[in-house]
Amino acid sequence: MTFRSLLRWTAPLALAVFALNATAQTTLRIGFQKSASLLTLQKSNGSLEKKLAPLGATVKWVEFPAGPQLLEGLNLGAVDVGFVGEAPPIFAQAAGAKFVYIGFDPAAPEAEAIVVPKGSAIKSVAELKGRKVALNKGSNVHYLLVKALEKNGLKFTDVQAVYLPPADARAAFERGAVDAWVIWDPFLAAVEKQSGARLLQDGRGIVNNYAYYLAERGFAAKHPQLVQALFEDTQAQAVALKANIKAAAAVIAPLQGLEPEVVEKSLQRYEFGVKPLTPAVAAEQQKIADTFHALGLIPKPIRVADALPGSATVAEAAR
């Protein structure tokens, strides 16, 4: 057989193998919120794409306005991995969503707070009784409001909860349609600087304000190497961000539509660096679930353990 005839015989096979490899390429679809500064930075600098390229994987970033919407996208199969606050996974699990906790960020209690307008006569959380309080339903601030009211001898039903996403809540807050707003950074830092909003109570001494990385159960079981690569890149970018917050804020600010000083302030209130879930952190998440069920905010009790790696529920989904 001549070289030319050999080439004629092998070329179609080579093309077929190439096509098969191209078809088999995996795309990691990440659900994120623009307020998630570290992920916004990763999306901007392309570090994750470079990290996944040797594994034959690409990245697709899917933006959501808040955690509950992101969890809905995860449950519907629109994304494979998402990053949210404490409360959204509780509501999602109670609604039957199928996901698994794969990691968490350290506590950041100062990064969420109850604020009132600059000239408000309200001086304490106790004075919120009977008042209109804006919040994003099912977000991490939902739990902050519940616990802050409880600490001051009030029940959740003692205030008029007005459920609005961040942009609509800020508009309502600034025109005086609500008396207070419970919100997280960087929206918190923005309204403090731009509107002179006064901090009534942040999460210190009340809540942990962890953030969680979640994955669709089947994806987490089938692609552990992609999850590991995501976490390695996230950790590297977290170290770089904390080493030079000012430089990171300059990159992130235009992407979030905020001033660098606002973003810098919000970055200072977060501790970045993903870690595997510990039993202690899972127990704290269970406390939130139990609190929400006792208040009638979720229709049935849930076991956070059912959504942890290695649980029987997750193992069955993987099979």
Automatic annotation (TrEMBL):
The upper taxonomy is: Bacteria, Pseudomonadati, Pseudomonadota, Betaproteobacteria, Burkholderiales
Instruction: List the InterPro entries.
Output: ABC_SsuA_sub-bd, Solute-binding_3/MltF_N
What are the entry keywords? Signal
Which Gene3D superfamilies does the annotation name? Periplasmic binding protein-like II
Show the Pfam families listed in the entry.
Answer: NMT1_2
Record protein name field: Sulfonate transport system substrate-binding protein
Q: Signal among the record's keywords?
A: yes
What residue range is the signal peptide? Answer: 1-24
Family, as annotated: Belongs to the bacterial solute-binding protein SsuA/TauA family.
Top-rank taxon: Bacteria
Q: Which residues are in the Solute-binding protein family 3/N-terminal domain? A: 27-248
